[in-house]
Amino acid sequence: MTYKIAVLPGDGIGPEVIEQTVDVLKIISNKYDKEFIFKYALMGGCAIDKYGEPLPGETVDICKSCDAVLLGAVGGPKWDSLPGNKRPEAGLLGIRASLGLFANLRPAVIYNALKGASPLREDIVKHGIDIIVVRELTGGIYFGDRGRTVESGVNAAYDTEKYNVNEVERIARVAFDAALKRNRKVTSVDKANVLESSRLWRETVIKVSEEYPQVELNHMYVDNAAMQLIRRPQQFDVILTSNMFGDILSDESSMITGSIGMLPSASLGTGTLGLYEPIHGSAPDIAGQNKANPIATILSAAMLLRYSFGMENAARDIENAVVKVLDKGYRTGDIAADAGSSVGTVEMGSLIKKELKMA
Ligand code: NAD
């Protein structure tokens, strides 16, 4: 069995964390006797430098010809002054849209060994946290009509939040399907007390929920959800929400777990082709210094194996190897209580690979 994986290392710490992750996938390939073919391509600032655009057509073609896409991170100060559609981050929106990836899944899990890293009080995190945020990814305000105008001589700007029923139905189904494999609870987050688009969202989610009688559905306004995530995160299982609310809430849920360097994500469409990436950015402040935590990207590879290749056991092998390394006390700087005793990117990668080989 052969699988093709498009690899987009990107900018900043992207290539560093991707290098460790590709090594991990090579070990899985040997262990499970599957051939993985890695096809490297440029996206983000590195693509701007070479081709003058963040997402060259060739990169899209490579991704489309593969079974899954593994992405590091894009962006950095070098490209910050470029206009919006020429910036590295435009590549991210572009590749998601080109591949029809409308669902973003972001687990936020508190590891036993890292409970102390959460900024929340011990009595709030002691029962653990295991949430998955299902965020709509190709609609809403990030893709709506926008522009600049002048009103009575004053400069103004606008962005438009718009969803249609089909967009809401398909993301709702992803959330309900995910809930079926977990604790069977969906919290749909909106702002239906103010926004018309949220009222359509809510009506549609309620309709879809009728197909899933086994799953409990509740609704929460986004401002309340932001509070409840901090007050009692255990009340959540699957959070279903729009593009912008999901952007914010998934970062909040990652923060309560302790480190942005630990959290993976998957972006899925209707087929099995998915894009897998850490939730963090290119961290220009630590790029090239062997300081980046590679775990978020390595766990993204676990999601890739689970969702695109159906290799559940291999995914668990990787997740268990990460837990073992953390339980042994190894930490990168971002999750270390005492930065002086931390290990670097390469060392953390090697420790995980060693555990994987022993498993
Ligand atoms: P960031 O996630 O890159 O960094 C935020 C902070 O977290 C920094 O202090 C960084 O050192 C730290 N950090 C992030 N990942 C880490 C890791 N794996 N290990 C250890 N520490 C880590 O966010 P930012 O600083 O807001 O953005 C930097 C650049 O990344 C910007 O150009 C931004 O547009 C881009 N960005 C890209 C993506 C993406 O590619 N998906 C996502 C977010 C931001």
Structure overview:
By secondary structure, this protein is α/β, with parallel strands linked by helices. The chain folds into two domains: 1-102 and 263-359, Isopropylmalate Dehydrogenase; 130-256, Isopropylmalate Dehydrogenase (3-Layer(aba) Sandwich). It is built from twelve helices and twelve strands. The strands form two sheets. Strands 2-1-3-12-11-4-5-10-8-9 form a ten-stranded mixed beta sheet, with helices on both faces. Strand 8 (185-190), helix 7 and strand 9 (216-221) form a beta-alpha-beta unit. Helix 1 (14-31) runs parallel beside helix 12 and helix 8 (222-231) packs parallel to helix 9 (243-257). The protein is globular, with a radius of gyration of 20 Å. It starts with a strand and ends with a helix. The model has no long low-confidence stretch (mean pLDDT 94). The site of nicotinamide-adenine-dinucleotide (NAD) has 21 residues, from helix 4. Nicotinamide-adenine-dinucleotide (NAD) binds next to helix 4.
